[in-house]
Design goal:
single chain; alpha/beta; Rossmann fold; Pyruvate-ferredoxin Oxidoreductase, domain 3; 8-stranded mixed sheet; 15 helices; 32% helix; 18% strand
């Protein structure tokens, strides 16, 4: 029978040939076994996707005429997961080396087994990082010489099969590049299995052989490997090519049902009360105003700034606005400042230099400045009398309006201290009239944690009632 083209031609990017692998490398044989597995299963090439990372083994994606991605080092599995989630109908396979999958990408390898997504992971184990001259890797045998362990590796190697079994992969197998038909059977079974599937493929590396004076790893694989129909726990650890290598399928189960928590009994949820505040947007007449809220981390300083800016947008959606926040690495208990700018024109500089309205929830920021209070000569200050030493405000110009409200004390006596910022919002709304009441209440509802809406609105009303008539 005359053959018009190579049987793998449909699956190869011939324009990428010749490949970069060393003479005698068996990664090309693994590539061929994968192609034959796809052909055996009758998969449409357009439904197959392959993702790899970095390394000799990961170069497979460059030669497969499929939808492939050459991802960054160690990130093949999360990249493949993104492909699978975007199109669940695709048969997605990760192909890479032990360094890429088990070393750099080890955490992703563990997570895939635990999460149970339907991906195939074919890991070519050549005992090190070959592309960079053969460095020590996670599977490098104890005592093996590499360019980073010249005197022999002092570390015990990881066992890929044992890790996959412990991580929860639903299919786990071990084969070698020296047993192509067995390898193809393992790949076929893995691709048919639902859930995360893993095949460890032992493959010789010429650099490893040369550095460790081994004539032929392939000969050792053929001599020491035993294909077994049934495998025991002892077979999991039989992966030393100098002794015995157990090949076969260690697990082949359908994807498991996710267990349900049984320690906590589900209770009927109470009907959630819905709150709604209607407001009407209008032209605010605001040309430019600088607002600063300052205090101690934990007082809701940032949240207060967000409430103000959302309220302003509720009132006048055409306003331009910015919010910046500043606090130390330990926000809880430390000084905290939130600046809000409202402008009819585009804002070029987002920071408040001299506020027109200063809301002081505590005096920690002022004391850090040596007692200096920064405020516009015709500005307004609203201070929490419960937390601010009002004597700090004595030397201000008479043109500055100063109001005091015991916001924290009101919150502590009637609600919880955490809503003191909304007591302050209510007082500011009544005394300054910058932003309409319902616009602020709607902004508070937007940011209030579920279940606290009533308390936050009541705190606002308390502050509003405390304000001047």
């Amino acid at each position: 029978m005359e053959i018009s083209q190579h049987p793998y031609a449909e699956f190869l990017r011939t324009e990428m040939m010749p490949n970069i692998w060393c003479s005698g490398c068996r990664i090309g044989r693994i590539k061929n076994a994968f192609i034959e597995a796809i052909q055996h299963l009758g998969y449409d090439p357009d439904t197959c996707a392959v993702v790899s990372g970095i390394g000799c083994s990961s170069r497979i994606t460059g030669y497969l005429n499929l939808d492939t991605i050459h991802a960054t080092h160690g990130r093949a599995i999360p990249t493949a997961l993104g492909v699978k989630l975007a199109n669940p109908d695709l048969k997605v396979t990760v192909m890479g080396g032990d360094g890429d999958i088990l070393g750099i990408g080890g955490n992703h390898f563990l997570a895939l087994g635990r999460h149970g997504h339907d991906l195939n992971v074919f890991c070519m184990n050549n005992y090190g990082y070959s592309m960079t001259g053969f460095q020590h890797g996670p599977t490098t045998p104890l005592g093996a010489r590499t360019i980073t362990t010249m005197g022999g590796s002092p570390y015990a190697p990881v066992n890929p099969v044992a890790i996959a079994l412990a991580a929860g992969y639903t299919f786990v197998a071990r084969s070698t590049s020296s047993h192509p038909y067995h390898l193809m059977d393992c790949m076929i079974s893995a691709m048919k299995n639902r859930g995360p599937s893993f095949v460890e493929i032992l493959v010789p590396c010429m650099l490893f052989e040369r550095r460790n004076k081994i004539k032929s790893l392939e000969a050792l694989f053929l001599n020491k490997a035993k294909i077994k129909e049934t495998l025991s726990e002892e077979d999991v650890d039989q992966n030393d090519f100098t002794k015995e290598i157990s090949l076969g399928i260690f697990r082949d189960t359908p994807v498991r049902e996710k267990p349900q928590l049984s320690l906590v009994k589900s209770a009927k949820k109470k009907a959630v009360k819905t709150y709604r505040v209607n407001f009407r947007s209008r032209a605010s007449g605001i040309k430019y105003i600088q607002i600063r809220m300052e205090g101690t981390g934990g007082q809701g300083i940032v949240q207060g700034g967000k409430t103000l800016i959302h309220a302003a947008m509720n009132m006048d959606p055409k306003l331009n606005s910015t919010l910046t926040k500043r606090y130390g690495p330990e926000m809880k208990g430390g000084s905290c400042v939130t600046d809000v700018l409202l402008s009819a024109q585009p804002i070029d500089y987002p920071f408040v230099e001299v506020p027109d309205l200063l809301l002081m929830m505590s005096d920690i920021v002022t004391k850090e400045r040596g007692g200096a209070v920064i405020i516009n000569d015709k500005g307004t200050i609203v201070a929490d009398e419960s937390m601010v030493d009002l004597s700090l405000l004595d030397g201000l110009p008479s043109t500055v309006k100063v109001f005091g409200v015991p916001a924290t004390q009101i919150a502590r006596d009637n609600f919880r201290v955490v809503v003191a910022n909304n007591v302050m919002m209510g007082f500011v709304c009544k005394t300054t009239s910058i932003i309409e009441k319902n616009c602020i209440k709607a902004a508070i509802l937007k940011s209030a944690p579920p279940g606290t809406e009533e308390m936050n609105l009541a705190a606002f009303e308390k502050g509003y009632e405390f304000g001047k008539p």
